[in-house]
Amino acid sequence: MSPSTSIPSTNVFEIGNCITTLIKVEPKLCNRNNNNNNNSSPPKPLLICSPLEAGVFPVLLFLHGYLLYNSFYSLLLQHIASHGFVVVAPQLYSIAGADANEEIKITAKITNWLALGLGQLLPPNVEPNLAKLGLAGHSRGGKVAFALALSKSSTTSLKFSALIGIDPVDGTDMGKQTPPPVLTYTPHSFNLDSTAVLVVGSGLGEVRRNPFFHPCAPKGVNHEDFYNECCKPAYYFVAKDYGHLDMLDDDTKGIRGKITYCLCKNGESRGAMRRFVGGILVAFLKAYLEGDSRELVSIREGHHDMLPLQLQRLEFQV
């Protein structure tokens, strides 16, 4: 465990009052051999970010983007956890094809495992409140999150009260979906049983970085299409002048980490987008997991003066 520092603050766009710790968890061999006797071992490697202080905290399951590592989101996870949440970020795969069905199934297994093993991995006197459970995903992870919430391929024993797509993408080409398709292109068609939804988009996600690569969040399969199919309650924020990977850590190590600076159209720096994504997630989770909507309403009504960037679009259905 490696503690992080925190700056006392009530502003959701800044680090919160809780000191946090990052916990890396590897599945034990018995799990990989399909031995289910050890319930404390998760189905996949995990990066857990938890408050260190004693308490009972809501839980957010966070899914990484296509071919990315969960560690690339360490600063974002710490931002969220510092406001009083336990964040669980599995490494769903290292290499994957176009079909996301296996990711949906393994995310369902991880969700069901939370009730069996998560509490045993947290710091002393920290308890997860799985009655207040959120599901978030970035890019392809956003597609997987929506697919699981819509019960495509798999179902879970736990119920999600909040669903978040961070620049979600339902395809790898211009307007072309990958299996299983999530978007139906019918307005308000997502049947999510009144689960509250937040969709965050990047203004530069649909812009090519150069003529040789497709946009990272192309029109026809991106955040706008996801929001159009949501039913209320739903929120939609698009960050102007920031790109599809700008919520990652500044220092993303290794070849894949370096590539994150090359494939997508980026903003000037990642800090502002990371603070915005972290803050808007915290405001949304506080509203729909904890019943405190003050920050979210302030942002929605345009009265929040601490936004770290300019919004290109803001819509909501409540």
Protein model, in words:
By secondary structure, the chain is of the alpha/beta class. The chain has one domain (2-317): Rossmann fold (3-Layer(aba) Sandwich), CATH 3.40.50. Helices cover 26% and strands 23% of the residues. It is built from eight helices and twelve strands. The strands form two sheets. A ten-stranded mixed β-sheet has the order 1-2-3-5-4-6-7-10-11-12, sandwiched between helices. Strands 8-9 form a two-stranded antiparallel ribbon. α2 (74-81) links the parallel β4 (55-63) and β5 (86-90). α2 runs parallel beside α7, α3 crosses α4 (140-149) and α7 (271-290) crosses α8. The longest helix is centred in the middle third of the chain and has 21 residues, at 101-121. The chain is globular, with a radius of gyration of 18 Å. The chain starts with a strand and ends with a strand. Residues 4-8 and 30-37 have low confidence and may be disordered.
Query: How many beta-strand elements?
Result: 12
Q: What's the CATH topology label?
A: Rossmann fold
* Overall mean pLDDT: 92
Q: Strand sequence of the main sheet, in spatial order?
A: 1-2-3-5-4-6-7-10-11-12
| Unreliable runs | 4-8, 30-37
* Total domain modules: 1
Using the coordinates above, name the CATH class.
Alpha Beta
Terminal residue distance: 40 Å
* Biggest sheet details: 10 strands, mixed
